[in-house]
């Protein structure tokens, strides 16, 4: 996957995760809140991977 794809998927997962947490909080659904937190964390991880790929590309490009 490209760094841009990782970042886009990461942002989408963060957004959906936050929405699930909000819905879970509003409805008192602890399972949905937990799923949302997990999905948000997954998104943050994907975004970090995308950033790392960019860093590697720019570092290799400077060599």
From TrEMBL:
<feature type="region of interest" description="Disordered">
    <location>
        <begin position="1"/>
        <end position="63"/>
    </location>
</feature>
<feature type="domain" description="CsbD-like">
    <location>
        <begin position="6"/>
        <end position="58"/>
    </location>
</feature>
<comment type="similarity">
    <text>Belongs to the UPF0337 (CsbD) family.</text>
</comment>
<dbReference type="Pfam" id="PF05532">
    <property type="entry name" value="CsbD"/>
</dbReference>
<dbReference type="InterPro" id="IPR036629">
    <property type="entry name" value="YjbJ_sf"/>
</dbReference>
<protein>
    <submittedName>
        <fullName>Uncharacterized protein YjbJ (UPF0337 family)</fullName>
    </submittedName>
</protein>
<dbReference type="InterPro" id="IPR008462">
    <property type="entry name" value="CsbD"/>
</dbReference>
